[in-house]
Amino acid sequence: MRERLEKTGYLVDEGLAVACYLALELHRPVFCEGDAGVGKTALASALAEALGAPLIRLQCHEGIDASQALYDWDFPRQLLHLRAAEAAGVRDPERLEAELYDRRFLLARPLLKALQTHPCVLLVDEIDRADDEFEAFLLELLSDFSVTLPELGTLRAEVPPVVVLTSNRTREVHDALKRRCLYHWFDHPGFARELAIVRRRLPRVSARLAEQVTALVQALRAEDLVKPPGVAETIDWTRALDALGATEADAELAVATLGSALKYREDMERARGLDLSAILAARGA
Known about the structure:
The protein is of the alpha/beta class.
């Protein structure tokens, strides 16, 4: 599993590789928790690529409900069908009702689509943004990978999807949902691993530039920032400097492109107060 993921360009440690393998063997979701930008969402994409399966993504948000996540009916098409039936002289109410709630008018949202697609990888992104009711609904669905639709009965996955849930920990997710999953905490990587990730994702970028940007990000994370930059920001910052034609960084260019890595005014002011030249010189030495 580790080799297959790394072939996609996604570097994993042993714990995460084992969790992904067990997710396939035991049909249990992987619950990924950690700061934004540390590779939680990218794991689902890498798994889909490694398994040769489509990725189905459900982006959670406040107020999300079953009709947005599971299914809905195509009301305009149902209305057209009803008018066509009436024009054709169909007057049987039971027949019309049965035809209106046929599968051809069913709009499968991500969760239902994942139950009907095999194999597939289902990403439930930022579950911490959803409310308690949706969490309870999701727990029930993931327990046996089936759902009951009032109009069509129970639909069950022939092959359970590989499920990845992510949380940025803006609030605590209930223990009941976590107990159903294999848990993995995503921490910020050390220098060597982060540099390896940047080099794997941006192979054409100057090796020295990648090393310098990684060193700068590692130094910034040691500061008391509102939002420390993640690996995604390290890649973005390296890509931005490369787009400007830089093969190595200097303090002036680093300050000019801080917006690629930091997203709060307070963090940018703190970064400008650091001796970036000393950080770069230390890495050069």
